[in-house]
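Action item from last week, closing it out:
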Amino acid sequence: MHHRFLSALAVALSLGFAQAASAADMPTKIPVKAAPAALPYNWTGLYVGLQGGYAWGSSVQFFTAGAGGSTNRYNINGWEGGGTLGYNWQFQQWVLGLETDFSGSHISGGGNSTTTYNCGTDCTTNVSAFGTLRGRFGYAWNNVLIYGTGGLAYGDIQSTLNGGNVNNWRAGWTAGAGVEYGFDPHWTAKVEWIYVDFNSFQWTNATNANFGCAGLNCSTDAKFSVVRLGVNYRF
């Protein structure tokens, strides 16, 4: 019995030494370094861009003295496009910015004579150019920014009455919202809606009867929404 026990022990020790030697001969695995975590998107910085879109709204012409007549409110619509310049400051996930843009446009439409306001050949309004200076405030989910915006608007409003026409640069206000997507550390794309309101303003106190308002103050307003796409490059 003693002899069998020693034989079994010798076999077990031999197998153990063989397995240990085999494990020692196996190559050691080199630890794989974990990939670095992606850095959060940074919205801070100066940017320039291009934007363009479509506008629709309404306008009216009316006398501000005398009989106080007016056209019916008529539709205006058309395209716009131009450039953008801005700067963002990011505080954790909040983004504060200042943006200005300027667009050439052809946002136009016309109305017919009424019993109180004689257009003669036509009454039209055309916004031939406009710009904005706005603040922006938004919340960023890494490279996606949702924001509200508002501020000053200014534009060149062209008015036509009975074959005569004038144009005035007019100040107003604007407000809107948008979403911007950073598809590269420097490049972003956005879709934006803004509402622009150029309140009524006197565009002539003409004595020329061709304007159809001799001795009366003629006024026009323009109010419209814009949906536009844009692309920005941040330095």
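Closing note: The CA atoms of residues 17 and 159 lie 102 Å apart.
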